[in-house]
Amino acid sequence: MSLDPTALPLNELIGLVAALLTTLSFLPQALLTLRTRDVSGISLSMYSAFTLGVGLWLVYGLTLGAWPVIIANALTLALAASILGMKLWFGRRPA
């Protein structure tokens, strides 16, 4: 797979941009949570379900050998799991 945007079919370019945006969308939340240690606005059930879902998407991508799916979900899993971990770690401490 070439990373030259002019060599990509439109559907692959759309998928690449979508994967990049959805993956990077977790970075600000992870950085904010790490900086403030405020996890009061984070839903434990939502992040638990989401992290499990992303993990399953990663497994799905691995079974297909679909590198864009694998890379996007591996990065998203790392970010979502870090937010979930901070929710569990910082949420058990008194404010």
TrEMBL record:
Family matches, as Pfam families: PQ-loop
Key word Transmembrane helix present: yes
Subcellular location: Membrane
Keyword entries, A-Z: Membrane, Transmembrane, Transmembrane helix
UniProt feature coiled coil, ranges: none
GO-annotated molecular function: sugar transmembrane transporter activity
Domain of life: Bacteria
Keyword Manganese assigned: no
Bilayer-crossing regions: 13-34, 41-60, 66-90
Record's bilayer topology term: Multi-pass membrane protein
Protein name: Glutathione synthetase
Species in which this protein is naturally found: Sphaerotilus natans subsp. natans DSM 6575
Lineage: Bacteria, Pseudomonadati, Pseudomonadota, Betaproteobacteria, Burkholderiales
